[in-house]
Amino acid sequence: MEDQSFPECQAQELFDEFVSASTCRAAMRSFSQLCEHLQLDPSTAERPLYRPIKRRLNYWRANGLWAKLDRRGAQEEYQRARACSDVTCVIIGAGPCGLRTAVELSFMGARVVLLEKRDTFSRNNVLHLWPFTIHDLRGLGAKKFYGRFCAGSIDHISIRQLQLVLLKVALLLGVEVHVNVEFKKLVEPAEDQHRHKLGWRMEVSPKNHPVSQLEFDVIIGADGRRNTLPGFRRKEFRGKLAIAITANFKNRNTTAEAKVEEISGVAFIFNQRFFQELRQETGIDLENIVYYKDDTHYFVMTAKKQSLLEKGVILQDFADTELLLSRGNVDQNALQAYAREAADFSTNHQLPALDFAMNHYGQPDVAMFDFTCMYASENAAMVRQRHGHQLLVTLVGDSLLEPFWPMGTGVARGFLAALDSAWMIRSWAQGAAPLDVLAERESLYRLLPQTTPENMQKNITLYSVDPTTRYMNTSPLTLLTWCQEQTCGYHGVN
Ligand code: FAD
């Protein structure tokens, strides 16, 4: 007998508070109050955690969500939450990809500990969603947490809303989330003063945080483009100079704003007249522009250097892009004016007021980024071995493959890599040989940069953690070819 002893009304209030929480801190707080109230300790309770919550919380409003999670949890690959039940995984970073990986691993019954160095989700910028990501998120109950999720034909979401939705799902599944904890480095297996053999651990900040005592089998780098896990070499793709500008304007949700049409991506080659008129009338020279109406009016555009110089946004010309876009070489007021004028022209002057939304620092939310050099990790995973302890190390999201924002590929390929990594961890948990596990992971990673909604399996309702449900061609690399190409996938020192 588990239920009955909890004042139901208070539990329901706490549940409602959690579902509607609009910040990371509020979601974490209301969830821990809910667990306390229901006398559940997420680190020791049955996984997925929502099941004991469901038994203790008799609340009609929660039923729709439980039904969704039950349906997802019934996928056969999860083996009723037993596929990874002996594995402890650490994930670095609560961005969309770290959180999505955490969700998948929890459905398979793994113990998942997620570290996030911040306790705020503050990015207004908007991510394009492919049809499968929309279907995936709906299946995880996104609409229950965020009623406006992909209303009608809308196929995008702000980064912070996406993080919030996934954080809530992850918490309900039992992921142990530690905010304000920064991963610093791996600690190799050793013996403690009582001659107990300790496995792989990590150093974090703050230093004495209990999570630094945790021993784990798998670690996943989901900490964005500045990946902190050592050992992964990066390839650099140097293209022609590409300067992206993002800008967010306040959305007051008026009728006039609602009427303005979104621009889901116009490139110069498809609409030369538009870009020529823009240049003639304003002096702004762009290669492409995207406009999404979300919590904010979000614009991302690629601007030509010459026009940024002529409009006084960039003060001095330098061949080195780091110098070119350095803080001291950019006039922030001119940048704001440039972004506002481009937004105004491209929406046919129909947005009534173009007031900037504020960013995390309380400044107008406009920024300029260099996409001339894009990075990708050479490998998706490796196995490290010390003193008989193996550790599976893998990367997902921007740490693995940096996306070009105006093309909107980031979160879709990020979710694919999250699922591929979870699949690898599943094989690992089920005892497959390390080299086989790595070879399969690398062969899938080779498909990733080419994926588009068009060249993937058509039936998105069948997508699961199993790669054959998602990719058309998953013929594995032969182990021999792969081993011949590798120098660093398996680090074994005993
Ligand atoms: P991220 O979303 O970058 O998340 C990484 C997380 O790891 C962060 O929460 C970070 O705080 C945390 N972290 C980092 N280091 C540590 C550590 N040592 N310990 C613990 N936690 C750590 N994409 C677009 O398509 N369009 C855009 O307009 C756009 N704007 C962006 C603006 C900014 C400022 C940034 C950083 C990214 C933007 N992106 C944009 C990229 C997009 O956010 C990512 O592709 C997407 O969020 C998936 O990334 P991720 O989960 O791999 O990493």
TrEMBL record:
Catalytic activity: L-methionyl-[F-actin] + NADPH + O2 + H(+) = L-methionyl-(R)-S-oxide-[F-actin] + NADP(+) + H2O
Primary localization class, coarse: cytoplasm
UniProt keyword terms in alphabetical order: Actin-binding, Coiled coil, Cytoplasm, Cytoskeleton, Endosome, Exocytosis, FAD, Flavoprotein, LIM domain, Metal-binding, Monooxygenase, NADP, Oxidoreductase, Phosphoprotein, Zinc
Enzyme Commission number(s) of this protein: 1.14.13.225
GO biological process, alphabetically ordered: exocytosis
Highest taxon in the source lineage: Eukaryota
Any one cellular-component term (Gene Ontology): cytoskeleton
Cofactor: FAD
Enzyme class: oxidoreductase
Localization of this protein: Cytoplasm, Cytoskeleton; Endosome
Single GO MF descriptor: metal ion binding
Family indicated by similarity: Belongs to the Mical family.
Annotated protein name in UniProt: F-actin monooxygenase
Range within the parent protein: 1 to 494 of 717
